[in-house]
């Protein structure tokens, strides 16, 4: 595989020391770093205590796990759709900590809930 002439631009809030280490790392070390970073993210997640539906949404079910919530919801697509709300759809919801110190809810779409057509 041919190396591109310029490395990708790092996020502006990523410390220079980390950028330097990553840019000098081997492919193997980069892959191991990604795996380790994902484990750290899972470890730092705190399940959200409150899940609020957006306008037109219906929260059908919330299941708490050690590091995330599984949320099943129905949701609208667009104004004027006679079949709304659609779903139910399954999401994995976690609280993520940003480098700035802020936290936000991360909704990962899993798919349609099986058995509910």
State the helicity in percent bands: 10-25%
Spell the H/E element sequence.
Answer: HHEEEE
Mean pLDDT: 83
Write down the overall geometry. elongated
Biggest sheet architecture: 4 strands, antiparallel
Q: How large is the share of residues in beta strands? A: 25-35%
Radius of gyration: 19 Å
Tally of DSSP β-strands: 4
Structural class: alpha+beta
Distance between the termini: 45 Å
Low-confidence stretches: none
Write a structural description.
The chain is an alpha+beta fold and 117 residues long. It folds into two domains: 10-44, no CATH class; 58-112, no CATH class. The chain is 23% helix and 31% strand. It is built from two helices and four strands. The chain has helices spanning 16-24, 27-44; strands spanning 58-64, 69-75, 86-97, 103-112. It has a four-stranded antiparallel beta sheet, with no helix packed on it. It starts with 15 loop residues before the first helix and ends in a 5-residue tail after the last strand.
In short:
With 117 residues, this protein is α+β, with helices and mostly antiparallel strands.
Task: Describe this protein with a few key phrases.
alpha+beta; 2 domains; 4-stranded antiparallel sheet; 4 strands; elongated
């Amino acid at each position: 595989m041919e190396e591109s002439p310029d490395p990708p631009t790092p996020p502006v809030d990523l410390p220079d020391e980390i950028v330097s280490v990553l840019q000098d790392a081997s492919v193997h070390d980069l892959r191991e770093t990604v795996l380790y970073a994902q484990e750290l993210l899972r470890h730092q997640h705190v399940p959200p205590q409150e899940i609020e539906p957006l306008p037109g949404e219906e929260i059908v079910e919330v299941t708490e796990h050690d590091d995330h919530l599984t949320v099943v919801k129905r949701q609208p697509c667009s104004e004027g759709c006679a079949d709304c709300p659609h779903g139910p759809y399954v999401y994995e919801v976690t609280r993520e900590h940003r480098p700035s110190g802020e936290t936000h809810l991360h909704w990962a779409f899993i798919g349609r809930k099986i058995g509910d057509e």
